[in-house]
Amino acid sequence: MNNQNVDIKAKIDALKEEKPWLELYEIEAIIAEETGIDVANYLQNEPTDNKKGSNYSAITADVSGKYGAYEDDDDDDKPQEIQQPAVEQPKVESVSPAEAALQAEREAAKKAVEKRARKTIAKNINSEMSRVGFTLLLYVVLTLAACVGLSLFLVVLMGKDITEVSAFVSDPKFAAVFEGALLFLGLALPFVFYIYINKLPVGDMVPLKKLRDGELLPMIFIGLGVVMLEGYAVNLLATDFDFTGANYSYNSVSLGTTFGEFIVSLLCLSLVPALVETFVFNGVILQVLRRRGGDGYALIMSAILHAILCANFEDMIGAFVTSLVLGYLVIYSGSLVPAVIVRGIDLIIFLGITQLGFIVPSLDTVMLIDMVISLGLIVAAIFSIMTMLKRFPNFFQIKKGDQYMTVGEKVRISLLRPTVLILAAYSVCFALIQLFPIDEILEFAEGKIYDIWVSMMR
Predict the structure, then answer these.
(1) Beta carbons of 305 and 285 less than 8 angstroms apart
(2) pLDDT digits (tens, 9 = 90+) for 365-397
(3) CB burial of residue 234 (10 Å; 0-12, 13-18, 19+)
(4) Among 373, 382, 335, which Cα is nearest to 222's?
(5) At CA 255, angle to CA 251 and CA 258, rounded to 5?
(6) 412 class by beta-carbon count within 10 Å (0-12 exposed, 13-18 middle, 19+ buried)
(7) Phi and psi of 78, rounded to 5°?
(8) 31-76 pLDDT per residue, tens
């Protein structure tokens, strides 16, 4: 094995060690930029879509023949200096035919790498988004099946009317357990299988890196402040610019009347959603998309998917902003812990504010408490941002993605996957349905369910 072959192998091994998730086209691109050598011509039987990172340990071909001229020429990668000609004399071309041929060969190698890179990026995004979209659709199907099955059971087999059904499903303990079970069994469990089936490294999909001293508390305040600001803005629009807090939804959620109901409801409506949503959207989805398209693309696309899954126009805004901010905190810190804590505290504050609506006689007092908490956390977030920027100047720096495809191109490819299109269509339709009075919808559904049952029994 000659010296050049050894040098290229050393470069590949160093890149693999430094960035184990690099795709083959990225390895090719880096080496083509440095040496002008298209290593794809000399790599044999190397995987191009390995979920654990490709193994670039073997280079069996001799590269000294075609590219031997590059061995001792370190200046070929530098741009040619343009020298100003003298006034009296025309500029003389200093590049020899051999050098021009070498430069043209390098450009051709780079263009070949770029073409393969774009094709590989698109292929990887298509395949990953198809899997992610299918898993999210599975959650939707399981949720609809559970709701329809419960309705059939109550209306047809138990003989309950619409009033009794509404009272049953709105029981605090039942509603909390039902929602928590759907999130765990319908959303979290499929993504556990997603990791297992695709043989993804658990440590990468569920990052739990130890945070540096002084990072956790500011990140928690930043996350809560942004979530409160988003909620504040949405609630102002929803109440025709009446002054409310970020958690304005008084009397909307009951945690029950007994201590047992309170504990069960609190766990199912705060801890379970915080863990499941963080695991799915800021864990598995964010991490697999980072591997396919870089940090910026993964942040935006995971936030879009979270928003789509909400199937409610107001909740979509909150889900997108929350997932975007918390996803960034996960990328920066290398841990899901800040995101889980922020989501958990946010849900606890929301549930606490709604309970005050049952306890405090004056809703104006509840509104004032809501505003104080919301504004207090927004101010704390501002100070936390200043603190983080002072201690960690690179706090808001997102790593650049590859140079071959823009974030917009990657997002467009992702949104055009059939599974994502179906998921988006369902979400929009369901959100539009919620604009109509819910009682009329339930009465209509009850009648249709009964008619279907009668026709089946004939």
Answers:
(1) yes
(2) 888 899 999 999 999 999 999 999 988 888 887
(3) buried
(4) 382
(5) 125
(6) exposed
(7) -80, 145
(8) 776 666 666 655 444 444 443 333 222 222 222 222 222 223 333 3
β-bridge mates for residue 208, sequence order: 335
Round to whole Å and give the CA distance between 195 and 285: 10
d(CA 441, CA 451): 15
Q: Where are the alpha helices (DSSP H) in 170-285?
A: 172-181, 189-197, 202-205, 216-238, 259-266, 272-277
In this predicted structure, the answer to whether residue 85 has a pLDDT above a threshold of 60 is: no
Check: CB of residue 330 under 8 Å from CB of residue 209: no
**DSSP code per residue over 154-198:** IIIIS---HHHHHHHHT-HHHHHHHHHHIIIIIIIHHHHHHHHHT
CA–CA separation, 428 and 65 (whole Å): 60
Listed in sequence order, the residues at least 6 apart from 11 whose beta carbon sits closer than 8 Å to its beta carbon are: 30, 31, 34, 35
Rounded to whole angstroms, what are the CA distances from 456 to 150, 329, 353, 409?
A: 18, 53, 47, 49
Closest CA to 194 of 278, 144, 129, 141: 129
Across the chain, what does the average pLDDT equal?
79
**Contact yes or no for 320/277 (Cβ under 8 A):** no
Q: Where are the alpha helices (DSSP H) in 294-405?
A: 295-310, 313-333, 337-359, 363-391
- Residues 388 and 119: their CA atoms lie apart, in Å, by 39
- 178-182's contacts with Cβ under 8 Å and 24+ in sequence apart are 178/146, 178/150, 179/268, 179/269, 179/273, 180/267, 180/268, 180/269, 180/272, 180/273, 182/142, 182/143, 182/146
Assigned token pair, 305: 């998917």
CA distances from 83 to 23, 86, 87, 96, 103 (A): 39, 9, 12, 16, 19
For 241-283, write each residue's pLDDT tens digit: 677 788 887 777 878 778 888 888 889 999 999 999 999 999 9
Interatomic CA distance for residues 207 and 335, integer angstroms? 5
- Token code pair at residue 303: 């936030």
Q: Which residues 6+ apart lie within 8 Å of 172 measured at CB?
A: 253, 254, 255, 256, 257, 261, 265
Global pTM exceeds 0.85: no
Q: Which residue has the higher pLDDT, 203 or 51?
A: 203
Give me 72's structure tokens.
Answer: 């001792």
Which residues are registered as beta bridge partners of 170?
A: none
- How far is residue 308's CA from residue 320's CA, in Å, rounded to a whole number? 9
Nearest CA-CA partner of 186 in 57, 273, 84: 273
Q: Are 249 and 375 in contact (CB under 8 A)?
A: no
- Token pair belonging to 398: 């997102």
